[in-house]
């Protein structure tokens, strides 16, 4: 297990290094100066600005500087926001994004697991059909359409929840719902298939032959075996929420990283784009790693064999 | 237990002579045999939801191809004189709840009916395109009197022709734009499918078939590649190129096929160790024969299923990017762009949002249901 | 072996609903099991032997599989009439089951000890400590070394033979009156097979358990059974005491089975193979289902199903060859020779 984790971390570092390098050089390939506003400044002042950002040095030196900064968690300085550190902006903005992401992942996967469980227990019944239909709709209809419907009805027409922006818990409800539908639907589908498969296993027959009640068979023998593989989808789901927050934060005007990111792209704030990109990549590989390790810890077959 | 209870029953002695046993007959298999694919397609045809989805997809594809040609407007043609017209279509205009008659109703409230009427007239004036109706006379309190104005928006704007899906703020025909946008989604679906089939299957197949060092190197590359979120790749693309269909296609080209290659590799690795493949290799079947006779037919189902799941993901990816403004840019139409435009005027002109949103949703649902159906039909494990 | 009957199955029919129609997996079978007796049910795959045991346990895969007709009489109860809920009272307590594949019949995410203790706590009302002590005792009974330490391990840490011992320990937890073993040794190595069979024999002697032993291995049958029922195409075609069946088989299918059994001192003569394939139970044939594969088939075999003809007090066979009008047909020479060989070995062994 330990060896497995170390290997994974090495890959994680290599991946991040490659992403950082690609990001850096692509930025350098960009035509013109990144300081669009600075174009209109007199020559001398432009020089000052370039020096200020370290853009006058040769590219390899800039690269080394950039990489050294990264190791210390320095993601550069934003062009747009009064020369503030990218990392400090991200720090300020991460709260709402995290809250939305965690809320929707936990509630979504929980509801999804229950839906899938119900569908599997009442296999081929009306409950199975409706929850499967719900799951198909949930995986199919893009979250931004859901978000629009929610905003229009709950916010504008019936005025039960604040239309947008951030502040109280009530503000988090609509974005959370819009975000959780996808993980919920995925979990429901996954759970249903997994549970149906588990219920066909021989050990379920053994448990029933022991005289265990049907409800206990499902809860004690079925559920645990079906839930363990569910952990594997949580990783990709968490990642999908990362991208999901981009739209949802924009629609509901949530001051999170996603909204910031979209703004940065549309205003060509390169350090901000690079910083956020790297931050996303870091989260992405970290989540995948954590989920893999978690899986190893929970499944006794992997835990005790010392890794696959 | 059933004893010799019918002993007294008389049987014809002739019956106790040996029957002629036909040796050939005994080896005959009783049930007619069907191939795996016949079985699979039979199962698929019996799946009502999947068949409806297939029909919906065919219809949408046809509309995407021919829809924009069905009237004289072009996707970018603007005309402010006909902006924000609600949908109006012949025949359908007579079906009340569809709301496709080009009529709009507004309710004006005031303290008295006269004053409400005055407000309404100052908005729409006099003419045969507008009818006023007093809903409530009012009792003098604020908002108690109501006057409803029914406006024929087409007559008001002096437009003779029909706009089946209405027009947007700039007076562009939404029918043409919606189907033009659908083309983008279908194009993305095609790109994703081709990449899946060519790069994904080839990469996974090579990796799995040759194994050893080749596999090791290819998998290490994949490990790093899959560590990069596709959004990040897209961002890098649009920083270098411009946001648009090319950037999206390239982003899909770089990472979109990874899932497929993993599945194919896993399946090939599994098949390679199956006895029937080992047997034919021992018997001297060449690599290419092994691939075409055994490996391809046995992975085909899995490949088709996986492609079907790739498609809605790719369509979503484009719509999502265009929606947040990182994909196609105005004045180009894509369903994501149209939905984004629709959001801006959700309260006044909901039709701008509804049509592309419905088309996108139906497209996604149909692909997903069809994919589900194919998985149930083509994956022997899934069969009950 | 006493004569007290503990379980009686009467005219049991089990069907499965499938997309193509009703598959009649078990068709009107009757048999009984005495106290402390071992009844072996033999037959090829698809003959309905496993389905029969699932029906006895009330474990048919609902709603596809169902008991169409008949009775399963145990004490005052008819299991064929009980609901799944009512059956839980008997399952694991009066009736226990050992499954074929020890690699898959244990819950991979539950400790072995817990799986053994589950039945004890449920049916015998033991508290955790009592159940633990008892579970260790059971694991020792099935000769699992170091049982106490093994309690906290997971199934994947056990070998196949050890897992099957655990499965047996689970089945024995509540001193069942009837133990149903569905090919319990098929998936195991021959040496392990012998050990498992030994354990089962010892337990039967100690507790007077009745065992229904499903197998397609006639060698195992000779080793463990008191009586044998031969199933073909969902029907019992011959049933009798083990030596009656081995030394005086009456049904051509039983001849085929005996003839196709390989022996160690196999000489140059070929194995006797039964030609053809079993019938499709979606549309069972009109007469004797075995007729098309039977080289001794009579014309009447294609017209009418043979009834059970009594051979001796305990021996019955369903073949028209036993009818007074039928020609005198003897088992083929190779089978007769086989029977003589076995006889000789048997005598030498006794």
From TrEMBL, chain A:
Assigned GO CC terms:
plasma membrane
Topology in membrane: Multi-pass membrane protein
Please, which domain of life does this record's source organism belong to? Bacteria
* Record localization: Cell membrane
Protein name in the entry: Oligopeptide transport system permease protein
What protein family is recorded?
Belongs to the binding-protein-dependent transport system permease family.
* Taxon lineage: Bacteria, Bacillati, Bacillota, Bacilli, Bacillales
- What keyword terms does UniProt attach to this protein? Cell membrane, Membrane, Transmembrane, Transmembrane helix, Transport
Give the organism the record lists. Answer: Marinococcus luteus
Keyword Transcription regulation among record annotations: no
| InterPro entries, per database record | BPD_transp_1_N, MetI-like, MetI-like_sf
The residue ranges of the ABC transmembrane type-1 domain are 94-295
* Main localization category: membrane
Q: Does the keyword Cell division apply?
A: no
Among Gene3D superfamilies, the record links this protein to: MetI-like
According to the record, the segments passing through the membrane are 9-27, 100-121, 133-154, 166-191, 226-252, 272-298
An individual GO BP term = transmembrane transport
From TrEMBL, chain B:
Q: Supply the SUPFAM superfamilies for this chain.
A: MetI-like (SSF161098)
Primary residence: membrane
The UniProt transmembrane annotation reads: 48-70, 184-209, 221-239, 245-264, 299-328, 348-371
- Biological-process GO terms, alphabetical: peptide transport; protein transport; transmembrane transport
Which PROSITE patterns does the record match to this protein? ABC_TM1
ABC transmembrane type-1 domain ranges (all copies):
182-371
Provide ranges: composition bias, Basic and acidic residues: 1-13
**Which InterPro entries does the UniProt record give?**
BP-dependent_transpt_permease, MetI-like, MetI-like_sf, OppC_N
Source species, domain of life:
Bacteria
The GO cellular component terms are:
plasma membrane
Location within or outside the cell: Cell membrane
Report the NCBIfam families cross-referenced here: Opp3C
This chain's protein is named Oligopeptide transport system permease protein
Query: Which organism is this entry from?
Result: Marinococcus luteus
Automatic annotation (TrEMBL), chain C:
**For this UniProt entry, what is the primary localization, expressed as one broad class?**
membrane
Q: PANTHER family this protein is in?
A: DIPEPTIDE TRANSPORT ATP-BINDING PROTEIN DPPD, OLIGOPEPTIDE TRANSPORT ATP-BINDING PROTEIN APPD
- Return the InterPro entries for the record: AAA+_ATPase (IPR003593), ABC_Ni/Peptide_Import (IPR050388), ABC_transporter-like_ATP-bd (IPR003439), ABC_transporter-like_CS (IPR017871), Oligopep_ABC_C (IPR013563), P-loop_NTPase (IPR027417)
Q: Which CDD domains match?
A: ABC_NikE_OppD_transporters
- Source organism per entry reads Marinococcus luteus
Query: Pfam families in the record, alphabetically?
Result: ABC_tran, oligo_HPY
Q: Which named protein is this?
A: Oligopeptide transport system ATP-binding protein
Tell me the keywords, alphabetical order.
ATP-binding, Cell membrane, Membrane, Nucleotide-binding, Transport
């Amino acid at each position: 297990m330990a060896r497995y984790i170390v290997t994974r971390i090495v890959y994680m570092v290599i991946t991040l290094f490659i992403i950082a390098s690609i990001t850096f050089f692509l930025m350098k390939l960009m035509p013109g100066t990144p300081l669009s506003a600075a174009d209109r400044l007199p020559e001398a002042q432009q020089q000052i600005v370039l020096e200020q950002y370290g853009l006058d040095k040769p590219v390899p030196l800039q690269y080394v500087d950039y990489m050294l900064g990264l190791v210390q968690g320095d993601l550069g300085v934003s062009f747009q926001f009064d020369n503030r550190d990218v990392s400090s902006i991200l720090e300020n903005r991460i709260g709402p994004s995290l809250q939305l992401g965690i809320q929707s992942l936990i509630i979504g996967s929980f509801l999804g697991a229950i839906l899938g469980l119900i569908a599997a227990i009442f296999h081929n019944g009306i409950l199975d059909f409706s929850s499967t239909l719900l799951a198909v709709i949930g995986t199919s209809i893009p979250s931004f359409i859901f978000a629009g419907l929610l905003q229009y009805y709950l916010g504008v027409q019936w005025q039960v929840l604040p239309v947008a922006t951030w502040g109280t818990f009530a503000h988090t409800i609509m974005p959370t719902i819009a975000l959780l539908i996808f993980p919920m639907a995925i979990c429901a589908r996954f759970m249903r298939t997994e549970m149906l498969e588990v219920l066909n296993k021989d050990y379920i027959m053994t448990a029933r032959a022991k005289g265990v009640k049907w409800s206990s068979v499902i809860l004690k023998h079925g559920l645990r075996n079906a839930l363990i593989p569910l952990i594997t989808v949580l990783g990709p789901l968490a990642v999908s929420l990362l991208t999901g927050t981009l739209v949802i934060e924009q629609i509901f005007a949530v001051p999170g990283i996603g909204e910031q990111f979209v703004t940065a792209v549309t205003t060509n704030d390169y350090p901000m784009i690079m910083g956020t990109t790297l931050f996303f990549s870091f989260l992405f590989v970290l989540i995948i790693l954590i989920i893999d390790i978690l899986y190893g810890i929970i499944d006794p077959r992997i835990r005790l064999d010392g890794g696959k | 237990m059933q004893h010799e209870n019918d002993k007294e029953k008389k049987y014809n002695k002739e019956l106790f002579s040996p029957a002629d046993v036909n040796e050939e007959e005994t080896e005959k298999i009783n049930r007619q045999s069907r191939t795996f694919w016949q079985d699979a397609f039979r199962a698929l045809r019996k799946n009502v939801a999947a068949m409806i989805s297939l029909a919906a997809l065919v219809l949408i594809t046809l509309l995407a191809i021919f829809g924009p040609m069905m009237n004289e407007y072009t996707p970018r043609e603007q005309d402010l004189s006909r902006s924000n017209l609600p949908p109006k279509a012949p025949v359908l205009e007579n079906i009340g709840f569809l709301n496709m008659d080009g009529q709009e109703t507004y309710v004006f409230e005031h303290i008295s009916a006269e004053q409400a009427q005055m407000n309404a007239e100052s908005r729409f004036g006099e003419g045969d395109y507008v009818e006023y109706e007093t809903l409530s006379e009012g009792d003098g309190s604020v908002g108690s009197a109501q006057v409803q104005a029914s406006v024929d928006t087409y007559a008001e704007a002096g437009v003779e022709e029909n706009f089946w899906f209405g027009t947007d703020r700039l007076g562009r025909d939404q029918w043409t734009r919606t189907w033009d946008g659908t083309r983008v989604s279908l194009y993305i679906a095609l790109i994703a499918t081709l990449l899946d089939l060519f790069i994904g299957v080839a990469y996974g197949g090579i990796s799995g078939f040759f194994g050893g060092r080749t596999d090791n190197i290819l998998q290490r590359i994949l490990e790093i590649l899959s560590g990069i979120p596709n959004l990040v790749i897209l961002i890098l693309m649009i920083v270098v190129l411009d946001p648009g269909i090319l950037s999206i296609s390239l982003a899909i080209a770089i990472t979109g096929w990874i899932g497929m290659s993993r599945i194919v590799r896993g399946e090939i690795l599994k098949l390679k160790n199956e006895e029937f493949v080992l047997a034919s290799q021992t018997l001297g079947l060449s690599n290419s024969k092994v691939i075409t006779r055994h490996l391809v037919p046995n992975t085909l189902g899995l490949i088709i299923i996986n492609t079907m799941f790739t498609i809605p993901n790719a369509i979503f990816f484009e719509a999502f990017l265009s929606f947040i403004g990182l994909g196609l840019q105005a004045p180009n139409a894509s369903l994501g762009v149209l939905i984004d435009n629709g959001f801006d005027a959700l309260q006044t002109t909901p039709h701008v949002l509804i049509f592309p949103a419905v088309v996108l949703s139906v497209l996604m649902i149909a692909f997903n249901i069809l994919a589900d159906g194919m998985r149930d039909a083509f994956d022997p494990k899934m069969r009950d | 072996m006493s004569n007290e009957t503990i379980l009686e199955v009467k005219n049991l029919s089990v069907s499965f609903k499938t997309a193509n129609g009703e598959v009649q997996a078990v068709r009107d079978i009757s048999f009984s099991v005495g106290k402390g007796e071992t009844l072996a049910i033999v037959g090829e795959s698809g003959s309905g032997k496993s389905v029969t045991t699932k029906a006895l346990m009330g474990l048919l895969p609902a709603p596809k599989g169902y008991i169409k007709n008949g009775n399963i009489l145990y004490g005052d109860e008819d299991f064929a009439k009980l609901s799944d809920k009512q059956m839980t009272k008997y399952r694991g307590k009066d009736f226990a089951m050992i499954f074929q594949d020890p690699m898959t019949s244990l819950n991979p995410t539950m400790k072995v000890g817990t799986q053994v203790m589950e039945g004890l706590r449920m049916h015998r009302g033991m508290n955790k400590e009592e159940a633990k002590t008892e579970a260790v005792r059971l694991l020792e009974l099935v000769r699992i070394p170091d049982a106490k330490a093994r309690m906290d391990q997971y199934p994947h840490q056990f070998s196949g033979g050890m897992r099957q011992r655990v499965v047996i320990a689970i089945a024995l937890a509540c001193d069942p009156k009837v133990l149903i073993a569905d090919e319990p040794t098929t998936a195991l190595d021959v040496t392990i097979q012998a050990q498992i069979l030994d354990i089962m024999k010892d337990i039967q002697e100690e507790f007077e358990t009745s065992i229904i032993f499903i197998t397609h291995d006639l060698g195992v049958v000779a080793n463990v059974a008191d009586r044998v029922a031969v199933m073909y195409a969902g029907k019992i075609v011959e049933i009798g005491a083990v030596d009656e069946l081995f030394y005086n088989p009456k049904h051509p299918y039983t001849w085929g089975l005996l003839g196709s059994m390989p022996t160690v001192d196999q000489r140059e003569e070929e194995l006797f193979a039964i030609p053809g394939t079993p019938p499709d139970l979606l549309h069972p044939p009109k007469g004797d289902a075995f007729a098309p594969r039977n080289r001794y088939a009579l014309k009447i075999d294609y017209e009418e199903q043979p009834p059970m003809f009594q051979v001796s007090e305990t021996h019955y066979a369903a073949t028209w060859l036993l009818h007074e009008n039928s020609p005198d047909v003897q088992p083929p020479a190779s089978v007769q020779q086989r029977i003589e060989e076995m006889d000789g070995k048997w005598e030498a062994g006794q």
